[in-house]
Design goal:
Structural class: alpha+beta
Shape: globular
Order of helices and strands: HHHHEHEEEHE
Oligomer: single chain
Helix content: 25-40%
Distance between the termini: 23 Å
Largest sheet: 5 strands, mixed
Radius of gyration: 16 Å
Amino acid sequence: PLRVGYQANCGSCWAWGASAAYEANYFLRNGYEPDVAEQHPLSCTSRDMWKWATNSCETGGMHTSAMDWMVQKDRLAAEKQLPYKGVTGKCKNWNPKGAYGADAWDYVDPINFLFPSVRKIKKALCEHGVVASGVYATDSFKAYIGGVFTNDTGWKHSNHIVNIIGWDDKKGAWLIKNSWGAWGDNGFMWIKYGAN
């Protein structure tokens, strides 16, 4: 789950975030870390469950759509079977040998799903591994190179999906993994609880 991806010039953070959460949970349950194909949900999740947003490189998408698709289709390919291309691509009715299945997913807090408490996020990390999370990627977020990111726009919407992989109470911050390659601190960032 600590492998940093590179989504290239494709708005596929939602596919990377869902896939990383799946890989971490799979590792906790099975003792083996798969390398699943982010390209698979990118090509096959054309609309979210409410049919109001198209998931693609051009428009971005919803990580919840990718998770719904993983559960419904129960056939997430391995990266070596379907390498990432960084384009939306066409979905094939494809059920390869060695594909990975998913049983269920849920929000950290189904009642307060947009803004779960720090305590509930920590609990989810301990029980399920990596958590997919929305952030608001401002220019200062994009320019991050190290330390604890503390900027908070107050904007309560997200435009990017990352993964929370740990925390440090002394820093008052989450450790997040991004899908922008070597961005930040080799693909990682410390971000203050609640910032952006």
